[in-house]
Amino acid sequence: MSRKQFKILDQAELELDDAFDYYEYELQGLGKKFIEEFRRGVTRILNHPYAWSLIQDNVRKCVLKKFPYNIIYAIENELVVILAVAHQHRRPDYWIDRLKILKL
Fold it and tell me: What does pTM read for this prediction?
């Protein structure tokens, strides 16, 4: 299987930016570490897209190792679509409405 491509929904990108801002405010450089961990998570997903927990139909969750966030994603044809960068302890399933834009 070839490595998949990905896109990140605008809402998920805003969540990523918000988390970066929060961590950077808490401690200079921590936001950068969060982004690095997010990128490692995306790389793991792209290398092994079906390895992560199935949480709904075609939606999976990759748990970040050093931060309390999950990358919520779906696989649409040969594309990994990042639906949310979700804090593990806030509003579970708030991202469900984002599934409407997929052609699953």
Answer: 0.92
CB count within 10 Å of CB 50 equals 9
Closest listed residue to residue 3, CA positions, set 42, 40, 53, 61: 42
Contact 34, 23 (CB under 8 A): yes
Helix (H) or strand (E) run with residue 68 in it: none
Span between the terminal Cα atoms of the chain, in Å:
20
Give residue-wise pLDDT tens across range 19-74.
999 999 999 999 999 999 999 999 999 999 999 999 988 999 999 999 999 999 99
Q: Is 9 helix (H, G, I), strand (E, B) or coil?
A: coil
β-sheet bridge partners, residue 42? none
